[in-house]
Amino acid sequence: MTVRVLIVEDEKNLVKLLRGYLEREAYEVHEALDGEVALEVARRVDPDLVVLDWMLPKLDGAEVLRELRRFSDAYVIMLTARTEEVDRIVGLSIGADDYLSKPFSPGELVARIKAMLRRPRGATRGVSDEEAPLEFGELTIDSARREVRLRGEEIPLTVLEFDLLNALASRPGFVFARSQVLERVWGEGYFGGEHVVDVHVAKLRKKIEDDPANPRYVQTVRGVGYRFRGQ
Question: Is the model's pTM score more than 0.90?
Fold first, then answer.
């Protein structure tokens, strides 16, 4: 199956360079030079992964990402020339899976894409389709259907949010180090920092916890990582 990659970048020389690297990996490459075209192309080709620049004409990367998440679960790697930590946090919090700061090596981008694609989009590693739903009081996690319900109401989660919750809930009470979460959810060979785990845990808590500041299910173990409380 051919992997479809959409490059959203207004620097034509960079687009040409990245296209060359990606096509050598046999990826089907599409491109867009501004935010509005990016959304049109994404709706048309349904990419598996999007390389998205932060600074774009017409719609910036953040706006594109917010709209993209309304209809696509494609992996998203954001490119940014900015160095402030807050920009990276914003990108991750609105649905990016990873980021790269310019300048970067095209080879590193390819390596990160390969690491993401080892975990097929919409699938959780090591989960049987026949596995019975996990029930924890008012919370139900159905791996086969990739559904989460709280008090009977379905909770909409992104691909990463579901995989994160499912990984933690697979071993209730077990303390996962952030590095272990990265390996199970983001895949072996992920190059980004461990802070990405904290960002997605915070997003997950807002959706499944009655009080995200005092979580019942996904709990922090200070200095180590996270555990899922099943009781």
Answer: no
